[in-house]
Design a protein that fits this description.
Blueprint lengths: L2 H10 L28 H10 L1 E8 L1 H4 L10 H12 L4 E8 L5 H6 L1 H4 L7 E5 L2 H5 L7 H14 L3 E5 L5 H4 L4 H14 L4 E2 L1 H10 L5 H4 L9 H19 L17
Helix pairs in contact: 4-13
GO molecular function, one term: phosphatidylcholine lysophospholipase activity
Organism: Azorhizobium caulinodans (strain ATCC 43989 / DSM 5975 / JCM 20966 / LMG 6465 / NBRC 14845 / NCIMB 13405 / ORS 571)
Keywords: Signal
Length: 260
């Protein structure tokens, strides 16, 4: 069993939330308004007409909230809080469907159970991290993501893909950048917008000089309260810009630099 596999077993055993780690200086989230618009034309039209929207966030442990100090500090929770503030007089429900240790195959297998009953207007699918940790390489994950997108669209949902986090355990994997590119390519091929978490967090680290301990939990993989707050607010900005722009086609572009 390889080191990464042993690490993954440890991740599966982690509690949902972990104590926040204090740092001498609180980092500043500089990327909130630099994110690309996530075009969601049908969701925008529905919100304008009914003032209601349901978003499901599907993924693994970083979506579930490992590393956050509480359920209200996860990025899906921060997404809902930010969207509520941006769209007063509406009801935007964000449902967290993250499960520790999963990746695309497990996500797809439980879509009928965990996603379809909510009748979501939008599904944000965080994918790719655990495929790297399992040391399986890219394998057939591209085809699995395509299958999942088709299934989610069958529920009537618009889909957004989110790529892996920029964290020590992910960056150390030689397949991390190919994975990011694969997800972007699938999004472009299937006309699905992609939220580039990897590139955004790389900006925090490389440009803003935010160290990994300042934006990661003690395990070097998951986020902390700062990272989830910044991610949630940045994601909310991208979603909000899309919801204010009805009847425009989806795009799979990003305003933050590509991984180097």
């Amino acid at each position: 069993m390889r080191l990464m596999s042993l690490f993954r077993l440890g991740v599966l055993a982690l509690p949902l939330t972990l104590p926040a780690v204090a740092h001498a200086e609180t980092p500043v989230c500089s990327t909130v308004t630099s994110q690309p618009t996530l075009r969601l034309p049908r969701a925008a039209d529905k919100l304008a007409k009914t003032k209601q929207l349901t978003i499901v966030v599907l993924g693994s442990s970083s979506t579930a909230g490992v590393g956050a100090s509480g359920p209200d500090r996860t990025y899906p929770a921060r997404l809902q809080q930010e969207l509520a503030a941006r769209f007063p007089g509406t009801t935007i429900t964000v449902l967290n469907r993250g499960v520790n240790g999963e990746d695309a195959p497990e996500n797809v297998r439980r879509m009928d159970r965990d996603v379809a009953p909510a009748q979501p207007d939008v599904v944000i699918w965080q994918v790719g991290t655990n495929a790297l940790l399992r040391q399986f390489g890219l394998g057939n994950i591209g085809e699995t993501i395509r299958t999942g997108i088709t299934q989610l669209r069958g529920y009537g949902a618009e889909v957004v893909l989110m790529d892996p986090q920029y964290a020590p355990w992910v960056v150390a994997d030689p397949d991390s950048k190919p994975m990011v590119k694969l997800i972007d390519d699938v999004g472009r091929e299937m006309n699905v917008p992609v939220f580039h978490r990897f590139a955004m967090m790389q900006v925090w680290h490389d440009r803003d000089k935010i160290s990994f301990p300042q934006m990661s939990a003690f395990d070097g993989l998951h986020g902390n309260d700062f990272a989830y707050d910044c991610l949630g607010r940045s994601l909310a900005y991208s979603v909000a810009m899309g919801l204010k722009a009805p009847s425009q086609p989806a795009v799979a572009s990003t305003a933050v630099p590509r991984p180097r």
